Amino acid sequence: MAKTDHHEIQYLRNIPIFAELTDVQLEQIHAKTAERLYRKGTTIFLEGDPGDGFYYVQTGKVKIVKTSDDGREHIINILGSGDLFAEVLLFNNAAYPATAIAVEDSRVGVIRNAELEKLVMQNNLLALHLIRELSRRLLFAQGKIKDLALSDVKTRTAAVLLKLLQQQGVEHSKGSAALSLDFSRQDLAALVGTTRETVTRTLSALKKDGIIEIDGHQITILDLEDLKALIS
To answer: pTM of this prediction?
Structure first.
């Protein structure tokens, strides 16, 4: 088999669990990866489907969604370049615990669980990074549950805006930053864990307080410190 071109595997170094692996190890992962393109709004997999793959975002954004018994959608997370999903199904035969949907046109890498498990068994460093990532996800889930249980809507909205800002915001002056929301208010509400009407009122309150400015899908954080103070 011909050796993989060095440049073909460098995208894997943007994914934290793969970043410290050798070129040979990256070549093994690249060889097992199927690249899939998903148009905006396309379902990648459904909650309850048999889980057979380990996914990571190469480009674009993917939302992870749970549906309640009454049909309401709750967004667990919105993922960007380098983020993993469905990794919790490694080493166990289970169904996908949530639905994954492309928020925008996205390129996704997928490795069949059986293939990745073989690589993990042969690679202690990869195993260690996976354990760290799973631990980080567990802490994130615990924090999410705590926030939903103990925080009011304004606090949760501030936390979500800061998280999105960390993922995609561009600082344009000291103490302020621009955030482009490339999804609907309903999606934002689901991410916060409230209704569309409530999150709209909360954004209006933040605007009235002089913390943010809103222009369509663009939100400008006028005072980062005041926004951070809401969750301290």
So the answer is: 0.64
